[in-house]
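Z., the sequence and structure:
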Amino acid sequence: MSEQVGETLNSGFVAVVGRPNVGKSTLVNRLVGHKVSITSPRAQTTRSPVRGVRNGPGYQAVFIDTPGSQKPRDTLRSRMQEQVVDSLSGSDVVLFVLDASDMERGTVGRGDRYVAEMVKGSSTPVVACINKVDLLGKDEEALPVVRSVSDLGEWEDVFLLSATEGTNAGPLMEVVTGLLPEGPQYFPEGMTTDYPESLILAEFVREKALAALREEVPHAIAVEIDEVERKDSVTVVYALIHVERTSQRMIVLGKNGQTIKRIGTEARKDVERLLGTRIYLDLNVKVTPGWRSDRKFLERLGL
């Protein structure tokens, strides 16, 4: 897309919010058309806002994938919630995402009500997005869900979606672009995210770690890129996986180093696609006690 003289451009920021694990990252990736956010079935996968850019005829939509909204219980989650609030205050449109498969007989849980009250507090137009409808057994099961979500607030629209399958993603995009105000082209054509390269690389490694590890470890993991060394034929990425306890370090390493080797092999594929070059990924595991409550450490990770 290139802005022509006299052309009206609709542009702005679209905050995608919801409680943890409702499919916000998958929806952002679907709407942007590229993978900009990591995904995982585990809650709290997204820890900091990730912006993905979609250009089209007469519009530029900048989607902000926010952390799962919840009541803070530690420094990490407090910072995550602050980022959600900041993203809402700077957005032009809000997508309020809910998980249809969690609403038995249309019952809306406390977590969704908490987010609904938060987004209703702003003057920004809100579109309710009922995601994961592909997991509902019958079409009739969607009707009470739609009624309950509609009763939560005065939404601009209510959509039944499957971010995984792409159901109704096109019509949702039409509504979003129609709600965007006239504005400038914030990012150049061809740019799909403004997330720093080092943070993207760290997130790719963390995504594969989440997939490989047991239930008690994932939330205690942080990934930090120590250095990226570009050589003629290969790019060497040095990454540290931080955990909080020695026992967690042993789990990440796995027997004879098999688990960390699997994490590195899977992450390398995504990193090579991102950088367009052959990659050597050097992974090490470090015990960093209490990192989730260390503000300076969290800032170093971009959180």
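Residues 60 and 185 are 6 Å apart (CA to CA). The radius of gyration is 20 Å.

Let me know what you think.
H.
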